[in-house]
C-alpha cells in the first residue's frame, strides 16, 4: 500500500488565539499579522492542504510577524474546501487536480499588489509548507517580485530543466523521515540546482523529522523534535533576514 500523500499527524491540536486579523483582497480572504513597529518588509505565507484557517499556519504567520515583517496568509483555495482529516485518501488525486499548487500566480499577484499599495511593502519574501512549498518553488521560478523564498517539504515535481532556474534566492527545507519525498529526489534537486541555478540557494535536511514538522506549535512538539523544529524556523527567518 502506498503511503498516504502529505499525511502528517494533525492529531488533537491545541487551540490558538491569533494575534492578527482577516482582510478581503479582491476575490480572496487573507489573514494578516503586523509587527508593532513600522516596516516596509513583508512575507507571504502559503498554507498547506489544510488551508488558511488551520491554527498551525496562523501560528507561523504570527511568529514571522514577530521578527519584523508584515506577514500575510491568503486563502489560496479561494473559498473552496481545504483537505479535511475526515476526507478519504482515495480522493486525494482528484482533490489535487482542483487545488493545483502550480496555479497560484493570479492570487500571488493580487497579494503582492495589496502589500505594495496598501501596506507600503518594498521587499517581499514568501514561505510555504507542503502544498505551499510546491507553490513557492513554482512562484520562485515565475515571479521576480518575490525577493526570496523558503520552500518547506514541497514535493519535487517534474524533472524538467526550467524547474531549476530560480529567479531569486530560495531555501529548500526537508525532513529526513518524510515519506512523501525520497532522498533521491533531494539529491537530484541538488544536482540540478548546481547545474542550472544562477542565484543563491540552499538545501537542508533535518534529522529524524517527518512531513509537516516545522509547523507545530510549542505545546504540540515532541521533546526530541523540538531542537530541529526550532532550528528549521531559525534557518527560515535567517534566510529572510539575509535578503529582505
UniProtKB/TrEMBL annotation:
It is found in: Cytoplasm, Cytosol. It comes from the Eukaryota. One of its GO terms (cellular component) is cytosol. InterPro entries: AB_hydrolase_fold, CMBL, Dienelactn_hydro. Residues 28-242 form the Dienelactone hydrolase domain. Pfam families: DLH (PF01738). GO terms for molecular function: hydrolase activity. Belongs to the dienelactone hydrolase family. This is Carboxymethylenebutenolidase homolog. The lineage of its organism: Eukaryota, Metazoa, Chordata, Craniata, Vertebrata.
Amino acid at each position: 500500500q502506498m503511503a498516504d500523500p502529505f499525511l502528517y499527524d494533525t492529531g488533537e491540536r491545541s487551540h490558538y488565539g491569533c494575534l492578527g486579523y482577516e482582510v478581503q483582497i479582491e476575490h480572496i480572504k487573507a489573514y494578516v499579522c503586523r509587527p508593532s513597529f513600522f516596516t516596509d518588509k513583508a512575507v507571504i505565507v502559503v498554507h498547506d492542504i489544510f488551508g488558511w484557517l488551520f491554527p498551525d499556519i496562523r501560528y507561523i504567520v504570527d511568529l514571522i510577524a514577530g521578527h519584523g515583517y508584515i506577514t500575510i496568509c491568503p486563502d489560496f483555495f479561494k473559498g473552496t474546501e481545504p483537505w479535511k482529516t475526515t476526507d478519504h485518501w482515495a480522493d486525494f488525486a482528484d482533490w489535487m487536480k482542483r487545488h493545483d499548487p502550480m496555479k497560484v500566480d493570479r492570487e500571488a499577484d493580487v497579494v503582492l499588489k495589496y502589500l505594495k499599495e496598501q501596506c507600503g511593502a518594498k521587499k517581499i519574501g514568501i514561505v510555504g509548507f507542503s502544498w505551499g512549498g510546491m507553490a513557492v518553488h513554482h512562484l520562485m521560478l515565475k515571479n521576480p517580485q518575490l525577493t526570496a523564498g523558503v520552500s518547506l517539504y514541497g514535493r519535487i515535481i517534474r524533472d524538467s530543466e526550467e524547474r531549476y532556474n530560480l529567479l531569486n534566492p530560495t531555501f529548500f527545507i526537508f525532513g529526513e523521515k518524510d515519506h512523501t519525498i525520497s532522498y533521491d529526489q533531494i539529491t537530484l534537486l541538488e544536482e540540478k540546482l548546481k547545474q542550472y541555478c544562477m542565484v543563491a540557494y540552499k538545501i537542508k535536511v533535518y534529522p529524524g523529522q517527518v512531513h509537516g514538522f516545522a509547523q507545530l506549535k510549542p505545546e504540540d512538539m515532541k521533546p526530541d523534535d523540538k531542537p530541529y523544529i526550532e532550528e528549521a524556523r531559525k534557518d527560515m527567518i535567517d534566510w529572510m533576514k539575509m535578503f529582505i
